[in-house]
Design goal:
With 115 residues, the protein is mainly alpha-helical. The chain contains 4 helices and 3 strands; from the N terminus they run ββαααβα. It has helices at 25-30, 37-43, 47-52, 84-114; strands spanning 4-7, 10-13, 57-60. The longest helix is centred in the C-terminal third of the chain and has 31 residues, at 84-114. The N and C termini lie far apart (102 Å).
């Protein structure tokens, strides 16, 4: 089919116009694959340029066939609470410190009794 551009819900085959476009072929190539209506209107084309579009007209877009945009929804993950790590360490120390003290007391008692 050639190089097609969508503008104002109409399709245009601009393959033959690539070399003659005043803005260069890069402008037309960058407008393919998307709705180029805003790009076309932002430039401020003359009425003769708009009339020239009829020569390249292919057909209309049936907007009911265009898929709606799907928004990405991230999967739900459990909330990470950064405060849990210090709480875990404190609880671990509350358990281990008395055990270390008890171990030291038993060790000292055992060492002093044998001497």
């Amino acid at each position: 089919m050639g190089l097609s551009i969508i503008c104002l819900e109409q399709v245009y085959n601009v393959t033959k116009f690539l070399e003659d476009h005043p803005g260069g072929d890069d402008v037309l190539l960058s407008a393919t694959g998307k709705d180029a209506t805003n790009d076309f209107e932002d430039v401020g084309h003359s009425s003769s340029a708009k009339a020239m579009m009829d020569e390249y007209y292919v057909g209309d877009i049936d907007s009911s066939t265009i898929p709606t945009k799907v928004t990405y929804t991230a999967p739900k993950q459990p909330h990470y609470n950064p405060d849990k790590t210090p709480q875990f360490i404190i609880k671990l120390l509350q358990f281990l410190v008395p055990l270390v003290i008890l171990g030291l007391a038993v060790g000292i008692r055992f060492y002093t009794k044998s001497a």
